[in-house]
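Query structure, 290 tokens:
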């Protein structure tokens, strides 16, 4: 009975010690075994691992690809046109031992603050070496690659591997943005005024051409009408001449009736003439001769 009383606590202590010496490395993590703050072992393969209880401790770090947002950053390209840039980076802890030595107990939070400084510094340096037009155009892809390559070199000292760097937003500051919009609006208004002026000029040419065409058509129509009228008068005179030659007396009678019809109508001016005037010859006699 006494042996059981002594053995049970010893067994509990042995089991507790055995359990505390075992730890599990997740497939998404890397683990460091520390002894008095010094790195003893690096565990990168998932599964069971062992450590000395009480003396050694285990620290784990995420082995997945992580993201880091870089807040709005103001840069000044070569043309002194300030820009506000938002960026983000994707990275992973490549060397956990070096990472631990670089950041100590600060962990991932301290590492990300240092990575922010690296990204901000490289972004200012790269974007400050080109004109703003290059930053705002498709050339920004090569600029992002330059920032990434420079950040890769500096981040190695932290045990980090920078995988990618992207510029999310590249805008002008609000004051510059309003000035740019005003300049763009003035430019569009000038272009619109030029288009209106060119349209008015084209309209004037069309109207002038139309007026010229109208004058030409009216002139041609007037000329043709005069020709037709002249031809008709010639035919009429020819008919009159033929009629006169065929029967001069009848022709003279016809002309006198036409004269009576034109002269003796209501509303005409009064005529004062002698009754024995030759005008009334056919009113006095059917032959028209006295």
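Result returned for the query:
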């Amino acid at each position: 009975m006494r042996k059981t009383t002594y053995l049970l606590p010893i067994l509990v202590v042995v089991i507790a010690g055995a359990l505390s010496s075992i730890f599990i490395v997740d497939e998404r993590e890397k683990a460091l075994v520390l002894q008095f703050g010094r790195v003893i072992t690096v565990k990168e393969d998932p599964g069971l691992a062992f450590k000395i209880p009480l003396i050694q401790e285990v620290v784990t770090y995420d082995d997945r690809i992580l993201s880091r947002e870089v807040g709005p950053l103001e840069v000044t390209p070569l043309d002194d046109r300030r820009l506000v840039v938002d960026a983000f980076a994707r990275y992973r802890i490549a060397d956990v031992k070096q990472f631990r030595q670089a950041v100590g107990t600060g962990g991932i939070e301290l590492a990300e603050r240092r990575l922010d400084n690296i990204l901000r510094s490289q972004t200012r340096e790269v974007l400050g070496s080109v004109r703003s037009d290059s930053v705002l155009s498709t050339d920004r892809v090569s600029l992002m690659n330059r920032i990434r390559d420079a950040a890769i070199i500096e981040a190695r000292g932290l045990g980090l591997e920078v995988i990618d760097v992207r510029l999310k937003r590249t805008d002008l500051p609000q004051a510059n943005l309003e000035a740019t919009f005003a300049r763009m609006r003035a430019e569009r208004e000038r272009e619109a005024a030029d288009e209106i002026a060119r349209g008015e000029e084209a309209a004037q040419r069309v109207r002038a051409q139309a007026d010229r065409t109208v004058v030409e058509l009216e002139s041609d129509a007037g000329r043709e009408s005069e020709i037709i009228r002249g031809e008709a008068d010639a035919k009429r005179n020819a008919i009159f001449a033929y009629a006169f030659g065929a029967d001069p007396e009848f022709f003279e009678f016809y002309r006198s009736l036409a004269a009576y019809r034109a002269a003796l109508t209501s509303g005409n001016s009064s005529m004062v003439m002698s009754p024995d005037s030759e005008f009334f010859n056919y009113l006095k006699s059917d032959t028209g001769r006295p």
